[in-house]
Amino acid sequence: TELAKQKKEPIRYEHGKAVADKIEAHYLECSARTKENIREVFVTD
């Protein structure tokens, strides 16, 4: 994958959730590759 070529890896759920909790934000996983939850990332309440 592109991340592997760059010697990077995806953020783990636990890390993303912990950061979101710390800054009192929502956390939502998405994927540019599969387009999963892409639209939801930009929807505001």
From TrEMBL:
<dbReference type="Pfam" id="PF00071">
    <property type="entry name" value="Ras"/>
</dbReference>
<protein>
    <submittedName>
        <fullName>Uncharacterized protein</fullName>
    </submittedName>
</protein>
<dbReference type="GO" id="GO:0005525">
    <property type="term" value="F:GTP binding"/>
</dbReference>
<dbReference type="InterPro" id="IPR001806">
    <property type="entry name" value="Small_GTPase"/>
</dbReference>
<dbReference type="InterPro" id="IPR027417">
    <property type="entry name" value="P-loop_NTPase"/>
</dbReference>
<dbReference type="GO" id="GO:0003924">
    <property type="term" value="F:GTPase activity"/>
</dbReference>
